[in-house]
Write a structure and sequence with these properties.
Length: 108
């Protein structure tokens, strides 16, 4: 039996080497109850170790470093359920350091 999979679209950009941001699609093994942070961790572990994003509190959901734009709405990745077709971009108005890492880290 094949496990369920979902596709997650992630904006990639390294201002030191890339001319413009691009969207990359990743097919991720899906497990019930996964968050988008869980998906990004799987992407980095299974497919692309160069993917840059911040998090610290993977299990207690209290650090709030994983702020990103999810389908156009600013959200914490650890609190957002994973869904097929989700688009993840860096927080708007923040300076992109690399991929999903910006100089804006938490909502105040």
């Amino acid at each position: 039996m094949r496990s369920a999979e979902i596709t997650i679209h992630v904006q990639r950009f390294n201002p030191q080497t890339d001319e413009a941001p691009t969207m990359r699609s990743y097919v991720v093994p899906y497990e019930e109850g996964m968050s988008l942070l869980d998906c990004l961790v799987k992407i980095r572990e299974l497919y692309d170790p160069s993917l840059a994003f911040l998090y610290s509190c993977r299990y207690d959901n209290s650090c709030k470093l994983c702020l990103a734009s999810v389908n156009g709405r600013v959200s914490y990745l650890c609190l957002t359920p994973a869904e097929d077709g989700t688009q993840i971009r860096p927080v708007p108005k923040g300076k992109i350091i690399r991929d999903l890492v910006t100089n804006i880290r938490t909502m105040t």
